[in-house]
Amino acid sequence: MVPAWLLLLFLSVAQVFAKVQSAELYVEVPENYGGNFPLYLIKLPLPPEETEGEIVLSGTHDMAAEGPFAVDPESGFLLVTRALDREEQAEYRLKVTLETEDGRVLWGPQPVLVRVKDENDQASGHQATATIDVSIVENTWVPLDPIHLAENLKVPYPHHIAQVHWSGRDVRYHLESQPPGPFDVDAEGTLHVTGELDREAQAEYLLQVQAQNTRGEDYTEPLELRVVVADENDNAPVCPLRDSPVSIPELSPPGTEVTRLSAEDMDAPGSPNSHIVYQLLSPEPEEGADGRAFELDFTSGSVTLGDAPLRAAQNILLRVMAADRGGAEGSLSSTCEVAVTITDINDHAPEFTVSQIEPVSLPEDAEPGTLVATLMATDADLEPAFRLMDFAIEAGDVEGTFGLDWEPDSSHVELRLLKNLSYEAASSHKLVVVVRSVAELVGPGPGPGATATVTVLVEKLVPPPKLDQESYEASVPVSTPAGSLLLTIQPSDPISSPLRFSLVNDSEGWLCIKEVSGEVHIARPLQGAQPGDMYTVLVEARYEDEPTLSTSATLVIRFLKAPSAWAPTLNPVPTRHLCTPRQDHGVVISGPGEDPDLAGGHGPYSFALGPNPTVRRDWHLQALNGSHAYLTLALHWVEPREHIVPVVVSHDAQTWQLLIRVIVCRCNMEGQCMRKVGRMKGMPTKLSAVGILVGTLMAIGIFLIFIFTHLTLARKKDLDQPVESVPLKAAV
């Protein structure tokens, strides 16, 4: 019997490196262990439960076939089934493998070295022998050695762990656990664990077993049993939660520490089960990038910046895997997440969107305060404080004629006139405006886009045009024909710059004005006008070389009653032909055949084209005398077809319209119209002529083929004739 002070103390030292499955395991067992068997020695790193196979335990040649070791297939623990004697064998070298039925190795071999710890159980070399007769009453109520139980043990419960025995009779056993735990003792003194243990909840238990009589009185002092819960890798690393993102300034150098992860594992401290390593899961390196944005030290959990650049305002989620057991097979892991925000710094100088402004023209009499131009600037920084700008005129304004106006948080600046301009002093000003950042700039200084050039052209003051009258009036009968001249608008100074005239608010379209001469004509018949009505339009005049300078005057038309007059008889105009392209030919249009009032002083007839713009574009009408007019083509080319040209004939207050029928045709060299000629009867068509030509060529080809074939056959016949039969040619 081993003394009580020689309790079982075995240490399981698993020298396992990450991802190295064949590292040898080492365990010590005291010889002549007097505790309960089987004794659990060490947890084997078996593969996951999904791997099917048989656990095979083998040893050295010194170990008997029925050895004292076995492997619990449910818990994966190596156990010893009996006491060992160091003097019999000091150590055992075992190998554990997982094999299939046909002997194929699925896992292993895993070497295990078991050393038997020496106990003082042998007599010394010099001894004396004496015989003493001692009568001993056996005391079975002896202290128990500590018991090591694996946590989360997968065995049927209740599970036997120890045995106590009181040598007397009528004994009842009572068990108390400090702290309370899943332990029990039956009437025979067998101690059981009734459920799985959790080392993280409680690492040790102190059990007290009392032997009592039927009255509940203790026979003796209770036995104490210490139960040690062996650690198992049943807890994954846990990452602490972060309340706010980690902020890193942009352009921070590589190697800058972003954060340091500190995952915690509830398994036994200092054991492989709590040895944590880290692996960066995301972000992954971008395709084509030279390096990673972040680097991770897998042992310390330190996250630093990599070589890849980061942009301001980027929100990046770092995902890091924390694994225990050094990341070896069978390790547990969890994912840590760290939010990283890249903060902005003032590393961008503001720049104008346009560095060269188109020339701005200002009149010489422009008032101070006039807006000259608005310049826009941008700043690529994101922080509002870094986007504040300051503007100044750097060059081109020695006299202080111009000034800048902007809001403090605005990105645009207004260039305004501060003093009166003088064309004689300076006809132009070239201003250079510069923009700067209000906050201190980090990195390179402002570039060429930080300045903008504005050219201001001073316009010499020119007075607007002036007409000979401030307003105009004209009285016309309601029967006045289209084309009739009402009056002429003229400038007050005949030698001034040429003017261009136009009509405004001619709502009825009754009037038209010639742009250059200023003649106002009736554009179309005055339908709807009533005698006594007035019609007002606005005449606008502009300088030809200065369209911006203009003046206007009102034109009032008073409508009169149409006078009674006889209707003259107009001579009919026969159909005429005119050539295109234009020739020196035209159509003569005559007035009335008999006019008894013409000699009475009523005046001549006037001729005008109808109001149709197309007719006025294509045709030209020229008066020959008081009774005839000449109609010609106005364009060089007019479409060849029949044209109906309306001509308005007026006499006093009466008007008539003639419809002149003119056929425009293409002309020959003599200036005569070319007529389309049809096919002459009896003459061949184009198709028949082509057929005759093709047939003739085919007949000639056949004839030539026949001749060449005949010559070829004759030559072949001469070559086949014997040489002796060829007659000699006489020499001349």
TrEMBL record:
Keyword terms of this UniProt record: Calcium, Membrane, Repeat, Signal, Transmembrane, Transmembrane helix
Domain Cadherin: 21-131, 171-239, 246-352, 354-467, 468-570
GO cellular component, one term: catenin complex
GO biological process: adherens junction organization; calcium-dependent cell-cell adhesion via plasma membrane cell adhesion molecules; cell migration; cell morphogenesis; cell-cell adhesion mediated by cadherin; cell-cell junction assembly; homophilic cell adhesion via plasma membrane adhesion molecules
Residues annotated as signal peptide: 1-18
Compartment list: Membrane
SUPFAM superfamilies with a match to the protein in the record: Cadherin-like (SSF49313)
Main location: membrane
Calcium recorded as keyword: yes
PROSITE patterns according to UniProt: CADHERIN_1, CADHERIN_2
CDD domains on file: Cadherin_repeat
Domain of life: Eukaryota
GO molecular function: beta-catenin binding; cadherin binding; calcium ion binding
Residue intervals passing through the bilayer: 687-708
Protein name as catalogued: Cadherin 16
